[in-house]
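Supplementary Note 3. Input sequence used for the single-chain structure prediction.
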Amino acid sequence: MLRKILFVDDDQILRYAVEQHLATYREHFSTIIASDGFDAVKKLKKMPFSLVILDLIMPRMDGMSLINHLRDEYPDIPIIIISGVPREKMQQLAAATDIIAYLSKPFQTDELVAIIMNTLREEAAGGIMHDVSPAVFLQFMEMDTKTCTIRIIDKVSKQGGILHFIDGQLVDARIGDLKGIDAALKVFTWDAATIFLRNDCPPREDTINSGLQPIIMKAAGMKDESDDSQFSDDDEDYNEDEDEDEKDTPETSQLTTGYTLDDLVLPNDYDPPPAGVNTTATGVSSKDYAKAKGQVTSSLDDLRDLLDKVAGIQCSRDDIHHDETMNKVVVHLKALGVHSQFGNFQVGYIATGKACDHILLPEQPAIIVNIQPDSPRDKIIELLRIDKDILKSLIACE
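The predicted structure, written as discrete structure tokens, is reproduced below.
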């Protein structure tokens, strides 16, 4: 089971007895044992916990010190006290440190189980979802202006933590030792996670100060850089005798999700588009499509010819050019399209507020098309975002 509770006590016999009894509830949670506060701190760094149960009197690092550490570093984790100290003292401590429950030693294990199960039910009162894309699900929380507390665990790394939404705004996050914006970025590098949803969130300070879209885009860049480094390691073992045509670069295999100009190669027996294809939107007739034949090379000149022939736009070499400074923007927009299920990023429009605006094409390196204020912007965008096979034939039209 993904959810874990941490039981901390220096009494070896009690630890064993509790561990054996709680093992019968392994379908609901797993129990991790720590012998004292120091041991607990180490385990808290390694894995996410839904609950901590601790004794107050322990060697090296006592329960009160561990409570203070939890409140400083993991304030979202509920705490249960089990101890032989007077009940009145535990009651005062619970009220002062927001302890959810306390039990006097000796205690009935079934009583402890009842508290554990109730705590876990509250944690997931809004439901449990498995194999969820964090980017997609959390954007739904934003769009629905949801107020909720989400405990989240990554499917691959098993790392986890908690997210806090108030009126659709992500206001706070913790993943392991990461907090605030750093924790939020970590979440959006995950592809699939298990989510435990609670439909409330106590008032708290906004440590994020950002909408989700900028965070998702930055996280996509972080993930891409990590992927690139993995490819670099693989390249060391590459056989130079391997056919160059078979070798994929990181840009091709990882970044390209829409059409690329490198794909614009027509077979010699190219057929006209099937009936029903809308060719009038760009002013090109089916007869023009039928003229497409032979092999088409991919270059900026082809793109200039396309705009000149179909849109009536004459572009100089300066008007259509590669811009490597926009590569990361392309990566972010592609990732946003995938994670948001909006579809592949095909073309972007950048209003610069200057003499000319830009159209961005998702290539590596990125392609920028400068357009004047009086240019038929919508027609150009529609032309550049159409189906890849149709684009091939447009460039090939004689």
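The chain has three domains: 4-123, 127-218, 250-396. Residues 250-396 form one domain.
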